[in-house]
Design brief:
Number of helices: 9
Strand content: 25-35%
Largest sheet: 12 strands, mixed
Shape: globular
Distance between the termini: 53 Å
Order of helices and strands: HEEEEHHHHEEHHHEEEEEEH
Structural class: alpha+beta
Number of domains: 1
Radius of gyration: 22 Å
Helix content: 25-40%
Number of strands: 12
């Protein structure tokens, strides 16, 4: 399964780029006891995704050098506007533990109405105060990358993922850096539990500090060099070489299908990569709240692993950290303190 691992991680990561606003907003509260994803015709294959006919869907899109990928130009995975009460729960394989993303409150911050987004699992809870409009702006950059990928998956991989330097450029170019800054700007406060107390970190001033730092060409060059060195040190280039060599044996396909997600029927798009040694698939739907990923599966070498939605709703999210934090830390004070220490250390070394 190692040959498919990098591609699987890429597909699952790209699935989350579709967050944002959707014109036809879904409504109502749904939920279910499991995350089965099946077709209208039924089936309970342990979370398998099936098409309406129980077999491969007919490919009606353009087929060129992308080995069977359908025309993905009009795909839309944008989720409904974030609102207080929304939640979505994910589980993996047969593990009982789940991860839940939810919107549990609102608060004015720097003159903007922001939302508290909660991430929770057994033994862990954290909350982010986010500017929803700022988050949507940040997601537009990722959606553009996703559009480039869906238009020609094989070409996108060959152009951007052939080596560590290409990967570093993909994530460290000026456009990607600006998208990252927009994402940081959208996150205002982080809350978490520490030794039984609720703590908060205020990120005011951090985006401006990062923007000034990233404008330094030396910092950009250092980032790309460090990324490439770290990637190669972990054997990343070997994995990329394997994936490049196997691209000719991969078939990419998009298909529209009706699926059952935690007991709710909805339309979705299924993206598949088929290889003689296994298959990767991801099912994405804009009818889900917060995140469009309904199901992802990797099969190969006699193993199957999957991530699925086990429940979701548009109201009823529970705030697991109500009230004010016991302490709020200003992130900029910490960064400025670190800068002073580093400056002092550099000055001391220069005097020796």
């Amino acid at each position: 399964m190692s040959r498919l691992f990098l591609a699987a991680m890429m597909i699952i990561a790209l699935a989350f780029f579709g967050c944002g606003e959707q014109a036809d907003e879904a409504s109502g509260d749904t939920g279910g006891e499991n995350g089965e994803v099946t077709s209208d015709s039924g089936g309970e294959a342990g979370g398998d995704v099936a098409t309406d006919g129980g077999g491969d869907a007919e490919d009606t899109g353009d087929q060129g050098d992308d080995h069977g990928a359908g025309d993905a130009a009009d795909l839309d995975f944008q989720t409904p506007d974030m609102e207080v009460g929304q939640w979505i729960e994910y589980g993996a394989d047969q593990m009982p533990q789940t991860v839940t993303f939810s919107v549990v409150g609102s608060e004015m911050n720097q003159g903007t109405e922001c939302l508290w987004v909660q991430i929770s699992t057994e033994g862990f809870v954290a909350q982010l105060l986010v500017d929803p409009e700022g988050m949507e702006d940040a997601m537009e950059g990722y959606e553009e990358q996703f559009g480039d990928f869906t238009a020609d998956p094989e070409g996108y991989i060959r152009e951007n993922m052939a080596d560590a330097q290409g990967m570093a450029s993909l994530f460290g170019n000026e456009e990607s850096m600006e998208t990252m800054l927009e994402l940081v700007r959208a996150i205002r406060i982080i809350k978490f539990e520490q030794q039984g107390m609720v703590m908060a970190v205020d990120l005011a001033g951090v985006p401006e500090w990062l923007e000034e730092m990233l404008q330094d060409p030396a910092i950009q060059e250092s980032f790309q060099e460090g990324f490439a060195q770290g990637f190669n040190a972990e054997g990343g280039q070997e994995g990329l070489n394997t994936m490049m060599a196997e691209l000719d044996n991969m078939d990419f396909e998009w298909e529209e299908t009706a699926v059952d997600v935690a007991g709710e029927n909805m339309m979705a798009y299924k993206f598949s990569i088929a290889h003689p040694e296994g298959q990767i698939s991801a099912v994405l739907s804009g009818d889900l709240p917060l995140l469009p990923l309904a199901y992802a599966e990797v099969t190969g070498e006699g193993e199957t692993h999957y991530v699925e939605v086990r429940g979701f709703g548009f109201e009823g999210a529970e705030d697991l950290m109500p009230g004010e934090p016991a302490q709020t830390i200003q992130a900029m004070m910490m960064l400025q303190g670190m800068e002073q220490q580093l400056g002092a250390m550099a000055g001391g070394q220069g005097m020796q």
